[in-house]
Specification:
This is Bifunctional homocysteine S-methyltransferase/methylenetetrahydrofolate reductase. This protein is an alpha/beta fold. The chain has 22 helices and 18 strands.
Length: 604
């Protein structure tokens, strides 16, 4: 009898955690566990046999992270097929004809050094290669697990469907049974069924009780067999390791409830051991899948997003008069007098908004959200707060953004942020739960009145969402494609890296005209030859034409400032009829230079 036939007639017991057990057996926490298939195959076989002896009737290959994107990060990409093929063979040899072998496939990660996201076709091809090696190695089914991105899991299902193997698609849900983007358990289950999965389910997550609720909800909307692979509860950090406290007895008791709710394939994820499986097998001996009543739910329409043309605050005057935003640096200490005075002077000169960067170049400065509130109150000018993905995880970002909305901050510029390693704070690390694309999506969700899980917040955040754009790269089409995605995710205005070349400005405007969003070219006045050469040679995203560099030769102090202002004025005069505004970046916090340029723009 094949796997699916068995699953329709009896409850099958899976195995438990692989990484947890390898670490318990002395494998270094820094080691790549999939590489063990090649360098320590006896250890892999030993673990498979321990789970089989405990009662597993479905064991997973040690290949969860053996895809090209993860292997490339550690220099093992050329051994992708070998690792997967050997992983399948080891499990097949251990299982013999007594148990099914599930080819374990996990999610992809961003390729090292590549800022762009994989296309759907690229992702599907990477999955296809891994799955092909697993099929060649003799697996009985494919277990796609711990995915948090529904689109990526559907790509994996599409690749798996190119084989004749049964496909189990497990999602790793966040609290209350949602995933990033707000999709519910019910919608995920229906979309995976429509994509071609033979079994749908959930794994990882908070623990058995959370998975139990997820299975109960899935059972009501899809007739497919259901899989449940919960963690062993919440982990605790103890002596350098994460320790899971859920006892095998408790785990097995909850598994009985999962079967009663509709699960017919039950195993364990992080923190589970052969003892958990032993208790599980004892409780589920002779169990059969329960009958279920299925009703397809109706889903409410997605909350409307702001239209691309919606412009609020300083952007409301776009097209009627030149809009000017000016970047000021938050202080390194507690003294805010200079930045508040600069904001007042710029407001008097006619500036429309103040930009506040967040720890630029990963150098620590005062928090810009609180400072933005102070400037709006004391200087009476709107503030654009730059938010990086570097300094907070997903939880912290949502909390701080909700707080920013509460404080009256209405304009956010979403940026990925320079990595912490280039900064001055020894020991600081980068977070990057999100990137600029997904941060923009989060801001759009908050505007729609839901958090990243899709849970209602009571009202929308009211943000005007901005993004950065680099027009100076050698391949402008790549940068434009990135900008198109940012606008599609919810960006409603754009501020560029500093520009010094009118021809490049024209090319940028021609390539982005169809987007229909305000684009403010960056203007960074030069102050000396040394400053000019530093920007051109050492600062990513800035390119200064040779003729401008020649003009700054030998210029310093007052002569440098005069020449730099003259260059800026000439660019502004040439660009005035082409754009609706400018983003001024005064060097070294010299807001007086920006005041002069604001007056020049507004008086003309």
């Amino acid at each position: 009898m094949n796997f699916l036939d068995r699953l329709h007639n009896e409850v099958l017991v899976g195995d438990g955690a692989i990484g947890t057990m390898f670490f318990a057996k002395g494998v270094s926490l820094e080691a790549n566990v999939e590489h063990l298939n090649l360098v320590r195959p006896a250890l892999v076989t030993e673990l498979h046999r321990e789970y089989l002896a405990a009662g597993s009737r479905v064991i997973e290959t040690n290949t969860f992270g053996a895809n090209y994107t993860k292997l490339a990060a550690i220099g093992l990409e050329k051994r992708e097929r070998e690792i997967n093929l050997r992983g399948a063979q080891l499990a097949r040899e251990a299982a013999g004809s007594d148990a099914f072998v599930a080819g374990s496939v996990g999610p992809l990660v961003r390729l090292r050094g590549d800022e762009r996201e994989l296309t759907a076709a690229e992702a599907e091809e990477i999955f296809r290669r891994q799955i092909g090696a697993l099929a060649e190695g003799g697996v009985d089914l494919l277990l796609l697990e711990t995915f948090t991105d529904l689109d990526q899991l559907k790509r994996a299902v599409a690749a798996a469907r190119q084989t004749s193997l049964p496909v189990v698609a497990n999602m790793a849900f966040l609290e209350n049974g949602r995933i990033a983007g707000g999709f519910s358990v019910e919608r995920v289950a229906l979309e995976l069924a429509a994509a071609g999965a033979d079994v749908v389910g959930a794994n990882c997550g908070a623990g058995p009780l959370e998975i139990l609720g997820t299975i109960d909800r899935m059972a009501r909307v899809v007739p497919l067999p259901l899989a449940a692979y919960p963690n062993s509860g919440f982990p605790e950090y103890h002596n350098g390791r994460y320790v899971y406290r859920t006892t095998p007895d408790y785990f097995a008791d909850r598994a009985l409830e999962m079967v009663a709710a509709g699960a017919s394939l039950v195993g364990g994820c992080c923190g589970t051991t052969p003892e958990h499986v032993r208790q599980l097998a004892a409780r589920l001996a002779g169990a059969r899948p329960v009958s279920r009543q299925v009703t397809v739910p109706e889903f409410p329409a997605e909350a409307p997003r702001p239209a691309t043309g919606d412009r609020v605050g300083f952007l409301a005057r776009w097209g009627e008069e030149p809009v000017v935003t000016v970047e000021l640096d938050p202080p390194r200490g507690f003294d805010c007098d200079k930045v508040v005075a600069g904001s007042r002077a710029l407001k008097a000169a006619g500036a429309d908004a103040i930009n506040l960067a967040e720890n630029p170049l990963a150098r620590i400065r005062m928090g810009n959200i609180a400072l933005g509130r102070l400037i709006q109150e004391e200087a009476g000018i709107e503030v654009i707060v730059h938010i990086t993905c570097r300094d907070r995880n997903l939880l912290g970002l949502q909390s701080d953004l909700m707080g920013a909305s509460l404080l009256g901050i209405r304009h956010i510029l979403a940026v990925t942020g320079d990595p912490a390693r280039i900064g001055e704070q020894a020991g600081a690390t980068s977070v990057y739960d999100l990137n600029s694309f997904t941060l923009i999506k989060l801001l759009a969700d908050l505007n729609a009145g839901v958090n990243a899980l899709g849970n209602p917040l009571g009202r929308g955040a009211g943000f005007s969402i901005g993004c950065a754009f680099n027009p100076n790269g050698q391949r402008l089409e790549v940068q434009v494609a990135r900008l198109e995605k940012k606008v599609a995710n919810g960006a409603r205005f754009v501020q560029t890296q500093p520009l010094y070349d009118i021809a490049r400005l024209d090319e940028m405007l021609a390539r982005t005209a169809s987007l229909g969003v305000p684009i403010l070219p960056g203007i960074l006045p030069l102050v000396s030859e040394r400053n000019c050469e530093f920007l051109h040679n050492e600062v990513p995203g800035i390119v200064i034409p040779e003729e401008i560099r020649q003009r700054m030769r030998g210029k310093d102090k007052e002569s440098g400032i005069r020449e730099g202002l003259a260059i800026a004025r000439e660019f502004i005069a040439a660009a005035r009829e082409r754009v609706g505004g400018f983003y001024l970046i005064p060097p070294f916090g010299k807001y007086e230079i920006a005041v002069e340029l604001v007056r020049y723009i507004k008086q003309r």
